[in-house]
Amino acid sequence: MGSLVSDSIIDHGGIPLVDFTNWTTDSLPQDKKAIASQLAKACQSVGFVYIANHRIPHQKIEEAFAWSKKLFDLKQEEKMLAPHPPGHAVHRGYSWPGLEKVSNSMGDEKDPTHLQKESYEIGSDDYPDQPNVWLPDHILPGFREFMTSFYWDSWKNAQMILRAMAIGIGLDDEDYFLRYHSGHENQLRLLHYPPIEAAALENNSMTRMDAHSDWGSITMLLQDDCGGLQIENPNKTGDFIDAKPLQDAIVLNVGDLLQRWSNDVLKSSLHRVTLPPRQDRFTGDHKLTKARYSIPYFVGPSGTSMIETLPSCVDKTHPKKYEPINWDEYRLMRGSMQYENPDKEAA
User: Tell me: the pLDDT tens digits for 225-261?
Assistant: First the structure.
């Protein structure tokens, strides 16, 4: 299983772009296969890919960012009416700057006081293991209704991508991954990175988001025009390249679980958020960075799923590397790296 990537699909500073225009319910099998092959190639070589002409309408994206700004513009005491629950078991509600740690798949952690971001986590209202923590309706009327709708719009788009991924890595059933993913276990995150002195980012005394990988199957990211997202160069460990904003394009990346599921055929890459690349993003006497907003949608399987290596990713020269793993156990283990447990916080 050598490299599948073709130089012809590399674009935008080393990050591939895959166009889903020809992926429809009426598409010919060969059209779907061509798109799926490009997607799999990109995810094997780079682990990140721009998705163009997806299924989330432009207007919905604009509305989502507008609602996110309204949320984070609220007074702190209003945002704290929907606080993230203590500990690492439930990821819902508002996380204030300094609450969350960042760790990679090896458990290396960063000091949370240096993280300059705030977030709000949303899931399915029909997932009792992760109950939503909504703001009171009178604080931000219409917010819950819109975000619930946007959550499911994002899931419809994720279903298309999971089908393409299945075909691309050689599975006979395009719905293979959907048998493990119901849509209820996903997480919609609204992220805000407030303005910060550029010097603090340059000297590493503060950070927007340290290098990390994602836990689950896939992540779909919408970002504003600020910039600052970087991914690790697949050809040079420790070197990072810009994932520049492309209007209406989704930035898709493979999560650690899918890398494991695919026997390391698909790549879960480190990524971080740092200084915006364009100097005109700085303002004021203290060279403040522009505020940054992004909206990731994390896709994971049902909690009881046992994840076993895909048969299409194993052969004589590439034996199975991983034993089966329960997703709930894996998720809780990774979550324990990200949030302090209540007992430790009280110590």
Answer: 988 899 999 889 888 999 999 988 999 999 999 999 9
- Phi then psi for residue 16, to 5 deg, are -65, 160
Q: How far apart are CA 18 and CA 182, in angstroms?
A: 25
Give whole-number Cα distances, 195 to 65, 70, 92, 103, 199, in Å: 17, 16, 24, 23, 12
pLDDT at residue 113 in the model: 44
Phi, psi angle pair for 300, to nearest 5° = -135, 160
What residues form DSSP beta bridges with 345? none
pTM reported for the whole predicted model = 0.89
**What backbone torsions phi and psi does residue 280 show, to the nearest 5 degrees?**
-80, 5
Residue 255 is which amino acid? G
The values of phi and psi at residue 316, to 5°, are: -60, -35
Q: Are the C-beta atoms of 45 and 9 separated by less than 8 Å?
A: no
Q: Which residues have CB under 8 Å from 212's CB, separation 6+?
A: 102, 103, 104, 270, 271, 272
At residue 333, the pLDDT reads 82
CB 307 within 8 A of CB 257: yes
Query: Which residue type occupies 270?
Result: L
In this prediction, residue 279 has a pLDDT band, given cuts at 50, 70 and 90, of low
Task: Give residue for tokens 């650690």.
Answer: 256
Closest CA to 252 of 336, 165, 134: 165
